[in-house]
Request: fold
Amino acid sequence: MKRIGGGLLMVLCVSQLHIEPAHAQGFVSPQIGVVFGGDTETEALALGGALGVVGGFAGIEVDGHYASDVLDGGDADIVADSSVTTLTVNLLIGPRLGGGGGGVMPYVAGGVGLLRTRVESVGGFFDDVTANDLAVDVGGGVMVFVNDRIGLRGDLRYYRSLTTDDDEVLGVDLADLDFWRTMFGVVFRF
Reply:
């Protein structure tokens, strides 16, 4: 009888627990920002976005951005055009704070992907260079949601290429290129 009573008591206690299932939500985030520092010679406008999924404490995203005129600053008279394009897969780790329709998600991020650099010269001063390199990025940010579907996002990341090619333009080793990127955007959850 004691066993049956103890078993019933355990079943009653467990049935009163409310464990919320993990609930992942997809998101898309168009963004605008600035590439600066590191090997860049000027601050450059960056456009792009991210597509991903976040759950209770972690998420994953595919993040892509394009910035032009990143290496034009000091040598504008011989560099006709330059650009940096990034496409990375990132892990986002951070708690969701708050509930209901809104909430805040501060996060740290890190990932790996492609860093494509293109530099064109004025009048053939040097051979035009295009480099496709493996790269890493690390950083963090915050998503602040005003309701169930819409929020704002701010993000700061450091990028570094990891390839050992000998692509060098005007003293900048494109295989060892590094820079910072800050982005702001809207987040749409679905």
User: Anything to note?
Assistant: The helical segments are 2-16. Residues 2-16 form the longest helix (15 residues).
